[in-house]
Amino acid sequence: MDDHLDRVLAQWRSERPDLQAASMGVVGRIQRASRLLERSLAENFARHGLELWEFDVLGTLRRSGPPYRLTPGALSESSMVTAGAITNRIDRLVRKGLVTRDTDPDSRRSVIITLTEQGRSIVEDVLVPHIDHEDRLLAVLDRDEREQLAAVLRKLLLELGDRPSPAMRVPER
């Protein structure tokens, strides 16, 4: 069975047989998979009364470990959005009572964003259904295929310059 990119590549082969466009198929498939996955995740979060970006910010704070607080810069780096976009998102989450914005006691020029109890409760309520949904999205792949895909994507991301932010510490246990 052909996917969308098989058709695109066939059209290019027909119109420009001189091109070696196999990489177009890989990049195009990654882009299409990303869009389709994002759409499905957004629909799933909507069933829980959340936007995808809301879970992203709340989940980032939750996985940072107690006391569940980060700077806007650390949130921005984790979310891969601009400082302006993260400020807008924080403002909206503050209005909903899901996070607080306070002056950093160690640096009065900086602010700290903290997950509220309500925000933490929402993350806890949505986390397992979210993972179950992702498992269903990947059900076509067996365990070995998922591990292989993760390894190949990790290799690609590292080559493209994707590195964890120093602000993304692993909570100590």
From TrEMBL:
Q: Which SUPFAM superfamilies match?
A: Winged helix' DNA-binding domain (SSF46785)
What keywords are assigned to this protein?
A: DNA-binding, Transcription, Transcription regulation
* Pfam hit, one: MarR_2
Looking at the record, the residues that make up the HTH marR-type domain are: 23-158
This protein is called what? MarR family transcriptional regulator
